[in-house]
Specification:
alpha/beta, Rossmann fold, FAD/NAD(P)-binding domain, 4 domains, 7-stranded mixed sheet, 23 helices, about 20% strand, binds flavin-adenine dinucleotide
Length: about 700
């Protein structure tokens, strides 16, 4: 599943707004990482990650830097935390989504696939900082592939500055706010007299206190209820009257109960430069509740809804508008209510999120803009190789090993092994994905022996086996070398650091859809369409290290229970490897620690072990590509892509690169890809270099350090 990183000045837990509504919906298609502004922590830098909703990771940086927000002084620390997040969660080339231009410098640390600027308020900063902020927004608009605006005023403004701007005003959770009616009232206002005028939202510098105090003074018998947190303003500036009731911040779930008991809803926003572009979402929420609305003359309320809401252009006329709204004849009131219902019917957060998603997809496909490193790299390729291998998992390692000295192996991580890496946790060595890597093929067994066999695996897990390739590679290996683009027309790969390299033949071991993404607009529509037809399943492996002597009650060493866990594998230690399947349509039920807790509870429910105190180490690995889903007879899209690539000197090796449901052993896949490359090169260019075989290498004494054994 693709990743989406959001940089936001809005705290996830503070008032439910557009970002939370959108991200919880986009999380059906993306792994969302919501990166908040940092908080001060004298203990030092760390990233707090919570999962408040399926597939949504709220990342709160803690730093020792006193400056607030995405300040420049924070950037070095934030960049490091971000890089760790990217590598620990395998974020690949994420879609990056910004709510604030202040976060712009962090984009340099990302290999963004698509950059989205969701502009819902005019960025504002005091004094000197205003100029810097304007410059950053200008740069962001240059970089962004897509700009969304939250209202007509912002739309008109940004449209002049970017070619791909879409006005997608905030929407409404209509069922939530339609839960009003006679008899429903919040307990804390239930004894309050009518008529009641209510407002909910953040009470900050945009709030207009004069209109509210005038209203309270003009009608001391009317009650004014203000629900919401007070932020960024001096509490003393707020009007205090016996008939003004501040309820403080309340959960989203309670808002309908408050509205239900109000006679008129208020939008008392100050009308000034700071609110020139404000488009309050609550106007739709009030409409969903079907209540009369009185607003100050905010342009983005008056323009679309001036015929539905009562508008008071200054404080005194705000009071008259409230009187009109309250005393409006039933027929006129019903006419407005019908118009409100039509507005609400025509909008939904689901539809807004869906529209955004399709625009993001469209951009990804068109790949209109090229990221910075590509252009200079095109001008100066730095290297030329006979064969380049993309990815140093087992398939890439095997390919490079068989290709010999003229190969260049490129790997994005800082070590080899790909999905066969291992991680140490609490004295346990956990293999990524619990791969068995068994085979009866004599050549594969020979290779296992060359790599150190069972003794290596017993020492350091699959990682030790994969590291066994290192002394055998005669070509060059570059780690932390993420390929950002592949340009078949120029036989060129471009790395995210801006360097590039020309190849005669390329072998890709990255999953096929990811390779098609790397081709950008060089891939014709039919190839991209075929790629989007490919279906797969992802898996999360949770590993639990258990206290010595823990008694396991398991039906078999490898079994498939019903429910959350698709597969349970018993490991030495004792330890358990648990597989949880997920997909685009069926995301993980929870993530991070919450998921591990759920797995432990599930193990106890299944009776595998008794006390959760038995768990002394926990670790999880994500396998975004865990299973190819391909119905029999549905080979056409794969064949189409493979033919197109082969005609452009690109070979595929490995289960996910070749998109096979019947994969051959990954070592053989690498060997066969190397043979195809050598054959093609010998036909095209010159006689092939003799390929090393395991037997040859062994007889040459190249592996004397590894005792011969099989696994
Ligand atoms: C439980 C389990 C048991 C298994 N048992 C067996 C078995 O017994 N025998 C068998 O043959 N197979 C087995 N498999 C399957 C096998 O493990 C996988 O097919 C194999 O690990 C995939 O290796 P790979 O090299 O093809 O891909 P990966 O290991 O995914 O390697 C791809 C590499 O490409 C790198 N990469 C990706 N994008 C970029 C980029 N843009 N730039 C640079 N580098 C990039 C990645 O970082 C990664 O290192 C098993 C799988 C599972 C889940």
């Amino acid at each position: 599943m693709q990743s989406l990183i959001v940089f936001s000045q809005f705290r996830w837990d503070f008032a439910l707004r557009r970002p939370q509504h959108l991200m919880t919906r986009l999380a059906r298609d993306f792994r969302v990482f919501y990166f908040e502004e940092p908080v001060y922590d004298p203990r030092g830098a760390w990233l707090e990650i919570r999962v408040p909703a399926p597939n949504v990771h709220v990342c709160r940086p803690h730093t020792r830097v006193p400056e607030r927000g995405f300040a420049d002084a924070q950037m070095p620390v934030l960049a490091e935390l971000l890089e760790n997040l990217i590598s620990s969660h395998d974020l690949g080339t994420p879609v990056v989504w910004l709510y604030t231009p202040w976060a712009l410098p962090l984009l340099q640390r990302l290999d963004a696939k698509t950059i989205v600027y969701d502009c819902i308020e005019e960025p504002a900063a005091p004094g000197e900082a205003a100029r810097e902020l304007a410059a950053r927004e200008h740069s962001l608009l240059k970089l962004a592939d897509l700009v969304f605006t939250g209202g007509p005023s912002l739309f008109r403004q940004k449209q002049a500055l970017h070619e791909n701007v879409h006005n997608l005003p905030s929407s409404v959770d209509k069922d939530h706010f339609a839960a009003v009616g006679p008899g429903i009232d919040h307990a804390e206002q239930a004894t309050m007299a009518h008529p009641r005028f209510g407002f909910f939202g953040v009470i900050d510098q945009r709030f207009e206190p004069v209109s509210v105090s005038l209203l309270a003074d003009a009608h001391p018998e009317w009650q004014i209820v203000l629900v919401g947190p007070v932020a960024n303003i001096d509490l003393r500036t707020l009007p205090r009257r016996p008939n003004i009731h501040y309820m403080g911040e309340r959960p989203y779930a309670e808002l309908p109960q408050f509205i239900s008991g109000w006679d008129v809803c208020l939008l008392p926003f100050a009308v000034n430069a700071a609110t020139r572009f404000v488009s309050p979402a609550k106007v739709l929420e009030y409409m969903a509740a079907g209540k009369p609305i009185v607003a100050t003359a905010l342009p983005d309320v008056v323009e679309p809804f001036g015929h539905i809401v009562h508008v008071g252009r200054h404080a005194q006329s705000f009071v008259s508008a409230c009187e009109r709204a309250l005393g409006e004849p039933a027929a006129l009131r019903e006419k407005r209510a019908a118009m409100m219902r039509n507005v609400v019917k025509a909008t939904s957060w689901d539809a807004t999120a869906e529209k955004m998603l399709s625009l993001v997809d469209e951009v990804a496909h068109r790949q209109q803009k090229r990221r910075a490193p590509v252009a200079p790299a095109l001008a100066r390729p730095t290297d030329h190789r006979r064969a380049i291998v993309l990815g140093a998992g087992p398939a890439g390692l095997s390919t490079a090993y068989h290709l010999g000295k003229e190969s260049l192996l490129l790997e994005q991580h800082d070590r080899v092994g790909g999905s066969c890496r291992s991680f140490e946790e609490g004295g346990f060595v956990f293999d990524h994905g619990g791969h068995a890597m068994r085979s009866n093929d004599p050549y594969v067994l020979e290779m296992y022996a060359m790599l150190g066999g069972a003794s290596a695996k017993a020492r350091g897990g699959l990682q030790a086996l994969m590291n066994g390739f290192l002394p055998q590679l005669r070509g060059q290996l570059r780690l932390q070398a993420r390929v950002a683009r592949v340009l078949p027309s120029k036989h060129l790969v471009v790395l995210s650091d801006g360097t590039s390299c020309v190849y005669d033949k390329l072998v890709s071991t990255v999953p096929l859809p990811a390779l098609v993404d790397l081709l950008g607009e060089e891939a014709p529509t039919r190839v991209r369409r075929a790629s989007s037809d490919l279906r797969h399943e992802s898996a999360r492996w949770v590993h639990l290290g258990l206290a010595p002597g823990t008694e396991l009650q398991v039906p078999a060493l490898d079994f498939e229970p019903q429910g959350l866990l698709r597969r349970v594998v018993v490991l030495e230690g004792p330890a358990l490897a648990l597989e949880i399947a997920y997909s685009r349509r069926e995301p993980l039920p929870s993530d991070a620690d919450a998921l591990v807790d759920r797995c432990i509870a599930e193990c106890q429910r299944l009776g595998l072990f008794e006390s959760d105190g038995s768990v002394v180490a926990r670790h999880q690995f994500d396998l975004p590509f865990a299973r190819v889903l391909l119905e029999p007879g549905q080979q056409e899209p794969v064949e189409l892509i493979r033919h197109w690539l082969r005609a452009r000197d690109i070979e595929l090796a490995g289960e996910f690169a070749e998109w096979r449901t019947d994969p051959e052993h990954v070592f053989l896949a690498g060997k066969h890809a190397a043979e195809r490359v050598e054959d093609a090169l010998s036909r095209k260019l010159r006689p092939a270099t003799p390929r090393p075989s395991v037997a040859h290498a062994m007889s040459a004494g190249a592996i004397e350090r590894h005792p011969s054994s099989t696994s």
